[in-house]
Amino acid sequence: MRDVAIIATAQTKHVRSATTVNEVELIQPVIQEVIERSGVARHDFDFTCSGSSDYLAGQPFSFVMTLDAVGAWPPISESHVEMDGAWALYEAWVKIQTGHADTALVYSYGKSSPGDLPRVLSRMTDPYYEAPLWPTSVDIAALQARAAIQAGVTSEQAMADIAYRSRTSAAANPFAQLTTSAQPLALMDEEYLADPLRRHDCAPVTDGGVAIVLAAGDKARSLCSRPAWIRGIDHRADGHHLNFRDLTTSPSVRIAAEKAGVANGPIEIAELHTCFTHHEPILRSALGLADDVEVNPSGGPLAANPMMAAGLIRMVEVANRIHSGDVSRGVAHATGGHALQHNLIAVLEGEG
Amino acid sequence: MGAERVAVVGVGQTKYTAVRGDVSLPGLLREATFRALEDAQMTLADIDAIVIGKAPDFFEGIMVPEYSFVEALGAVGKPIFRVHTAGSVSGSTAIVASGLIESGVHERVLTIGWEMQSCSEAMWALSFNMPFQQQLVAGAGGYFAPYIRQYIARSNAPDDTGVLVALKDRQNALKNPYAHLHEHDISYESVKESLMLWDPIRYSETCPSSDGAIALILTNEAGGDAASAEGRPPAWVHGTSFRSEPAMAAGRDQVSPQAGKDCAADVYRQAGITNPREQIDVVEMYVPFSWYEPMWLENLGFAEEGTGWQLTHDGVTAMDGDLPINCSGGVLSTNPIGASGMIRFGEAALQVRGMAGEHQIDGARTALGHAYGGAAQFYAMWVVGADKP
User: Fold this and answer.
1) How far apart are CA A266 and CA A280, in angstroms?
2) Which of A55, A264, B139, B279 would disulfide-bridge B63, Cβ 3.0–4.6 Å?
3) Domain B7-121+209-235 grouped into CATH 3.40.50.10070
4) Dihedral sign computed on CA atoms, order A272, A277, A283, A288
5) What is the DSSP string of B332-349?
């Protein structure tokens, strides 16, 4: 495998509702910023790949217009996934592995504010047996949280602690949406949103986007003083039908973590795509993280959750800490589907 | 090409039709998948990863529908990946799948393109709003008709060029049991007298709306060699490329877009093709409206600018011509949008494997699969050959 690194990153200031900009206007400044930071000329990218969702945009082929934010003229080698941008990064990493590209621009974005997000996400279920019931993302997560509590994986107290820690950590993240929290005990006095989930257990509804630049080998070394090398990357799916799954564990994360080589060295930080507080203990266990591993120092999705971007942002947050020299080895996780159905794991390292 | 050679060892298609009311959505994908696995002499357990492409989720009204197909496709614990690049999508999807093998990441990849268009009215989904322009709400035909008229004005092509293309493709479809339209009574007159929908595109010169799926099994060189040794010839991938340009850009030529020219140049370079007219034996070209055959003949370098229509009129593109195009019946006879690109790629593979049945071109060694999408702005192509690259 070729050495491939994240050499530049950029993201929006994440907000509840970016009412004054459309998707092109939202992502264009981020793309401009990451291109400038990378030192790669706009027309010198060998490959471009993006991730977004038509269901969030409320329009078929919504990514077509967003291509205007790239400036695809003269024509470019380009592709798009209907998944989180973490998978666009995966496609770009594979493209570089084929030898057809040495550099790649990857971006993703989502504006969830125009719709009722939990209800929109109910369309992401089996169309015959589940979708007619209109189960929201929060409803499904609540079933998983209840199973996890009953299995002793977590507790309402532990979940409140995670919410508190995530949002107070986010105070140091200039891009985060939620940066304050009441004390855990006070959080537990609140009403249930969907038993056993309270509002603080759920990631917020967010508008935002993210962009990164990948480069291979010497190209990365020449453009970045401390590249964040992708030492391993893999993604796996679990089944869809809730009744076929043990919701308290994540077999797909376990496989992807092994393939990505998470255990091949000490992990200093983990940025995990935790859309709900109870995801953290499930992921920690499946990844085999030691107790002293810091999880989501950025605040994670519980502090800013732009759909289709929140997974790629996890890679950005690890990469930024490697670029700055604060961290030498970290793991990033992205998820898709309900109840952690589809998971991507990447191990990033400095040096090398 | 990169480190590892890529071989197509399995092709499976559903019967394409207006309404596949007899199967569920995962059932549709399984039908194509199991035919491809049978062709490749494999089972789902042999598959390392699955790459799926389709057009917008709104067509079936399910967000990321692949997630609910995971069990049906035996994908639990495996990588499953979803591509969406407009009408070219399943061509792009096959290229992404090919990259997984070329890069050495996986050895055996299943890739599927599908659409169940009967779930909705695709024409409205295809009438998306262009900023600063009046919304046509006239489907893809309404969008492309002005560019076809521009092509006619530039080339002075005879009025009936499109009629000849439609007649040829629909007659070719009679030799393809999977094709959606089997119009046994079609004639030059019946096409010419059919209703004018978007001048100059007549009803019989436009693609149908179809349900269907296609699946391909791709392997590395060892897998291709093994299939070959067992008497099942693979199609070897000689080059893959995609290119995109904006829907709107100053100076953009929508009649013969630069992205199409660049994509062809890239895939020819990889495949060592310097004279496509001489070196390519058969083409599966994305022609949803009849006039796009002469237009793409020029864009892809098979004819000089303004002369593509002459190849059509001279019978060069017919099955007994020296550059047969769309022997399968093409998009004009079958159009499940999210599968149409991969059907072109898969039919190109069938031709060089000598497995295209009644619509086989004898001795086809090198074939081009071509797909386009959006406002004629997204392109995906591959060149496959009977010989190892």
Assistant:
1) 19
2) A55
3) no
4) positive
5) HH---HHHHHHHHHHHHH
Chain A hits for B76, CB-CB cut-off 8 Å, are 237-239
Look up residue A2 and give its amino acid.
Answer: R
Residue A174 burial by Cβ neighbours in a 10 Å radius (0-12, 13-18, 19+): exposed
pLDDT over threshold 80, residue A146:
yes
Mean of pLDDT over chain A: 97
Domain ranges of chain B: 7-121+209-235, 136-208+241-385
* Residue A242 structure tokens: 């809730």
Amino acid making up residue A62: S
Query: Quick one: how far is CA A246 from the chain centroid?
Result: 23
| CA–CA separation, B310 and A102 (whole Å) | 42
Distance, CA of B79 to CA of B364 (rounded, Å):
35
* pLDDT tens by residue, B331-383: 999 999 999 999 999 999 999 999 999 999 999 999 999 999 999 999 999 99
Tokens 């904006």, residue?
B246
Mean pLDDT of the A50-56 span: 95
Calculate how close chain B gets to A280, using CA atoms only, in Å: 20
Provide the 3-class DSSP secondary structure of residue B11: strand
Q: Residue A295 pLDDT more than 60? A: yes
Quote the pTM value: 0.98
What is the mean pLDDT of the segment spanning B306-321? 98
Determine whether the interchain pair B81/A238 forms a contact, defined as Cβ–Cβ distance below 8 Å. no
Q: Please report, rounded to a whole number, the percentage of residues in chain A having pLDDT higher than 70.
A: 100
End-to-end CA distance of chain B: 9
Domain residues for the domain of A103 are: 4-115+205-228
Count of domains forming chain A: 2
Of B57, B83, B249, the CB nearest to A54: B57
Chain A residue with minimal CA distance to B260? Answer: A75
Dist. CA B294–CA A287, nearest whole Å: 56
**A104 and A196 fall within a common domain:** no
Question: Are the CB atoms for B288 and B335 separated by under 8 Å?
Answer: yes
Long-range CB pairs of A194-199, under 8 A, 24+ apart, other chains included: A194/A136, A194/A138, A194/A139, A194/A141, A194/A142, A195/A142, A195/A146, A196/A142, A196/A145, A196/A146, A196/A149, A196/A156, A196/A159, A197/A138, A197/A141, A197/A142, A197/A145, A197/A276, A197/A278, A198/A160
pLDDT digits (tens, 9 = 90+) for A13-35: 999 999 999 999 999 999 999 99
Q: What is the DSSP letter of A179?
A: -
Tell me: domain B136-208+241-385, CATH 3.40.50.300, correct?
Answer: no
Instruction: Write down the H helix ranges in chain B.
Output: 25-40, 89-102, 122-125, 139-155, 161-173, 188-192, 221-229, 258-271, 276-279, 292-299, 308-313, 330-333, 337-353
The phi and psi torsions of B7 (rounded to 5 degrees) equal -125, 140
Please check whether residue B71 touches A, CB under 8 A: yes
CATH number at residue A275: 3.40.47.10
Whole-angstrom Cα distance, residue A94 to residue A344? 14
Number of helices (H) and strands (E) in chain A: give both, helices first: 12, 12
Best mutation target among B6, B25, B70 (most A Cβ atoms within 10 Å) is: B70
Domains B7-121+209-235 and B136-208+241-385 equal at CATH topology level: yes
Which of A28, A46, A126 to probe the B interface (max B CBs under 10 A)? A126
